[in-house]
Amino acid sequence: MGTGKVFLGGVLAGVAAGALLGILLAPEKGSRTRRRILDKGGEYADDLKSKFEDFYGFITGKLESTKQNYEQIKEDLEHEGADAVAH
């Protein structure tokens, strides 16, 4: 994982912690505060799920690309071996 992604993850975690502290320290009714925490938690969970799905798609694509490259190299080497035997 690149430094930029680690930094972005840290920033998102900091924003989430700041938002949670802001909600907890706000002078509001307890039930309203709990509702806001649940709502924010749901938003962050959805955002995290979306980022994970993006990351999973990226990794899956890279693995598939690597597999295709491997198969192509394997075919090329087999073809070159057959040509060498024929000559």
List the helices and strands and how they pair.
Blueprint lengths: L2 H23 L4 H57 L1
List key phrases describing it.
single chain; rod-shaped; mainly alpha; 0% strand
Protein described:
It is rod-shaped and about 85 Å long. Helix 1 packs antiparallel against helix 2 (30-86). It is mainly α and 87 residues long. It has one domain (12-86). The protein has helices spanning 3-25, 30-86. The model has no long low-confidence stretch (mean pLDDT 81). It is 92% helix and 0% strand.
Brief synopsis:
The chain is mainly α and 87 residues long. The protein has helices spanning 3-25, 30-86.
Kindly name the structural category.
mainly alpha
Radius of gyration: 25 Å
What is the strand content?
under 5%
Percent helix among the residues?
over 70%
Helix count equals 2
Termini separation (Å)?
47 Å
Number of spatially distinct domains: 1
Shape: rod-shaped
Let me know the largest β-sheet.
none
Average residue-wise pLDDT: 81
**Which regions are unreliable across 5 or more consecutive residues at pLDDT < 50?**
none
- Strand/helix succession: HH
Tell me how many strands there are: 0
